[in-house]
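Page 37, continued from 36.
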């Protein structure tokens, strides 16, 4: 409540002090007649007649005139629009009022229609699409999704209904004033929040609605805006308005709504109320819902501590996740709090405060957090099944674009971990998960996360029996160089096979996961790739079709490393030794092969990444190397030699260490099944005998010839120290 005495006259029917006292009584539920249907929480409150607009035929237009009036509508400005609004309990009423005010406002209107479609949730037939015509999809409305037909005018106030860029002030609930109506974007000026006065361009975005009660996923591409001459009472929270109209075609229906609506006013002269009453109710009486038990218990909570973390920024704070609330420790002795609140245990917490999280504290989508101070009482509770043992906020891959500058949780099948390197040479891991559609989701695991053993154990993850389901929490969505990326935060935790309902759903879909094609793009000739400049190749992954004609390596075709720290190991007698971890029981190996590839246009030397070599050979370096035969490192395995000169599609990109005058390439993926071989490469010459008699001799000769296509000259560029960018991978810092 922010009452000001600026516009209240001395002869006002309701003085400002009396108005403030009356408001507080409404907030506490202390006044009014008890409702016969809900004697505990609901009362009928009498509204002072000085605040009432009589319910005549044109009463709604009178309310609109009080808040806006023709002068405001004809000469709208950011300052006048931001200080006015009509509020109602429900969305249906909002649309009606917005249509009336928009029609009364001057200027030409422009209609923006959405592009609606559906995505199948299961194994529907191709005819499934015909069951839901476009007209049906256009008529669908869902909460927090733009309408199909969005009608706007210049100077119309609008509200964002999605977070677009929190750093720039473009958050869900931000109000703007339209300044230009273009075909692909809408220009608007921010009129509320932290970036008032900034001009921004709003694009169309994809809205995704997936619910168990409909047999498909609904997709709507539309501007994330709605007209906001009127808004819901909930959306008006936190705003102070110089003119506010409260329209109650139906009474409020939840705790504190009437108080929130009335307390937006800055004085009793700045608010008017229109009540649509029935024959049995006076036109100045309405319901007030106040949960008295809630008011008594709001300062006491029974919670389970699920996670604990210390942020990189403001590392003097300690954060906990308690079921579905953040708890911020604000004691001077943080170690004391960390010793009292133990993850997985239950507690009663009394006498805590409530704070509004800032941009560095918005770990989950809560409007408040519990602030534990020196006066807070913390009492251990016996374990109980009533308080959940897990809490996640999972999002799907299709929802990723809607979560820019936010955090969310992911769940999926563990696919692999890829060793990568930042531009400053700092190593990190790329976690690849597969969702229930078989699509890859790539998440960067930064050093701040992987170095904490209580959050991440690579050995346990990679050695768990398949299928492994991973839940990873509070992943940061951010934009870098125009691309959206996913990465761990200070609050990230990783869970292996957590006992949650999503586990069963994923396990049921495991055997029916579709294979997502990797090689969708048409192949590019090697000569055209070699003609491209450094800038043309930057951050691009290209598809080509070529043969491997020879392998190249220096001292060994594999590299042995420590499974924990990934350091290079060396052999002492019969044991492998790591400088950091000592003798290793089971070191891990990766391929370290370069190759010459060739197509009909040209040839080039490339690095074969460990991932690509595994795809080509269908096995790992660990399975092919032999500790008992030290000479095996000097000869490429026969299985690799036998695959020479067979055309295959490959994914290829420029290495991170390439310079303008020295461009090198790495193969990140190789087609498992070879492409169709041209007849000229498979048909023997007519004069060559093809009888089965000399088949074995020819095979031996061919193998010896193939061995000559392996040389050890070029220095090896370890593919595991190069960022391997899969199609689903995102740009890193």
């Amino acid at each position: 409540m922010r009452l000001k005495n600026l516009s209240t006259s001395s002869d006002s029917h309701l003085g400002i002090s009396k108005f403030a006292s009356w408001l507080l009584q409404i907030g506490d539920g202390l006044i009014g007649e008890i409702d016969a249907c809900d004697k505990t929480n609901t009362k009928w409150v009498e509204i002072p007649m000085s605040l009432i607009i009589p319910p005549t035929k044109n009463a709604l237009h009178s309310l609109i005139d009080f808040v806006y009036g023709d002068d405001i509508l004809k000469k709208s400005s950011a300052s006048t629009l931001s200080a006015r609004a009509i509020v109602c309990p429900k969305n249906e009423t909002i649309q009606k009022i917005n249509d009336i005010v928009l029609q009364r406002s001057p200027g030409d209107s422009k209609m923006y229609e959405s592009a609606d479609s559906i995505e199948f949730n299961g194994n529907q037939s191709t005819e499934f699409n015909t069951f839901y015509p476009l007209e049906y999809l256009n008529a669908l409305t869902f909460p927090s999704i733009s309408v199909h037909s969005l009608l706007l005018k210049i100077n119309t106030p609008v509200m964002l209904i999605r977070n677009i860029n929190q750093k720039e002030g473009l958050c869900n609930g931000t109000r703007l004033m339209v300044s230009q109506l273009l075909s692909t974007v809408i220009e608007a000026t921010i009129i509320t929040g932290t970036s008032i006065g900034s001009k921004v361009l709003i694009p169309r975005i994809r809205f995704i609605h997936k619910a168990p009660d409909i047999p498909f996923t609904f997709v709507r591409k539309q501007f994330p805006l709605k007209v906001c001459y009127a808004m819901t009472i909930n959306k008006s929270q936190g705003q102070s308005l110089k003119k506010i109209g409260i329209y109650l075609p139906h009474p409020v229906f939840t705790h504190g709504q009437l108080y929130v609506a009335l307390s937006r006013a800055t004085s009793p002269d700045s608010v008017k109320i229109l009540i649509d009453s029935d024959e049995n109710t006076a036109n100045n009486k309405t319901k007030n819902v106040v949960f008295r038990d809630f008011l008594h218990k709001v300062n006491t909570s029974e919670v389970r501590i699920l996670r604990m973390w210390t942020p990189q920024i403001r590392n003097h704070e300690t954060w906990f996740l308690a079921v579905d609330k953040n708890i911020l420790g604000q004691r001077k002795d943080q170690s004391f709090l960390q010793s009292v609140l133990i993850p997985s245990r239950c507690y009663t917490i009394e006498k805590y405060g409530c704070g509004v999280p800032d941009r560095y504290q918005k770990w989950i989508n809560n409007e408040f957090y519990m602030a534990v101070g020196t006066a807070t009482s913390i009492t251990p509770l016996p374990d109980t099944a009533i308080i959940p043992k897990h809490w996640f906020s999972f999002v799907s891959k299709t929802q990723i674009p809607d979560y820019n500058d936010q955090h969310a949780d992911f769940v999926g099948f563990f696919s692999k971990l890829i060793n990568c390197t930042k531009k400053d040479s700092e190593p990190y891991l790329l976690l690849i998960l597969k969702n229930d559609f078989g699509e890859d989701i790539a998440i960067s695991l930064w050093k701040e996360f992987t170095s904490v053993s209580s959050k991440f154990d690579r050995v346990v993850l990679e050695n768990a029996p398949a299928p492994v389901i991973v839940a990873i929490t509070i992943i940061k969505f951010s934009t870098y160089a125009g691309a959206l990326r996913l990465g761990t935060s200070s609050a990230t935790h990783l869970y292996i096979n957590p006992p949650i309902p999503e586990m069963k759903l994923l396990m049921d879909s495991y055997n029916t996961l579709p294979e997502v094609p990797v090689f969708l793009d048409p192949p590019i000739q090697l000569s055209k790739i070699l003609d491209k400049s450094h800038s043309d190749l930057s951050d691009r992954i290209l598809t080509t079709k070529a043969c491997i004609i020879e392998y190249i390596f220096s001292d060994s075709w594999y590299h042995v490393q420590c499974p924990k720290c990934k350091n290079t190991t060396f052999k002492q007698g019969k044991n492998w030794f790591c400088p950091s971890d000592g003798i290793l029981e089971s070191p891990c190996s990766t391929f370290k092969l370069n190759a010459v590839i060739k197509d009909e246009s040209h040839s080039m030397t490339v690095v074969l990444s460990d991932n690509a070599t595994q795809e080509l050979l269908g096995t790992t370096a660990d399975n092919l190397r032999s500790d008992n035969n030290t000479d095996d490192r000097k000869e490429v395995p026969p299985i690799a030699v036998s695959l020479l000169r067979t055309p295959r599609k490959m994914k290829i990109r420029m290495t991170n260490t390439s310079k303008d005058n020295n461009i090198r390439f790495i193969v990140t993926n190789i087609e498992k099944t070879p492409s169709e071989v041209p007849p000229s490469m498979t048909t023997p010459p007519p004069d060559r005998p093809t009888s089965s008699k000399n088949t074995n001799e020819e095979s031996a000769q061919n193998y010896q010839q193939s061995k000559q296509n392996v040389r050890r000259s070029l220095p090896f560029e370890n593919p595991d120290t190069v960022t391997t960018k899969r199609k689903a991978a995102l740009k890193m810092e």
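The radius of gyration is 33 Å. Flag for discussion at group meeting. DSSP finds 19 helices and 41 strands in the chain.
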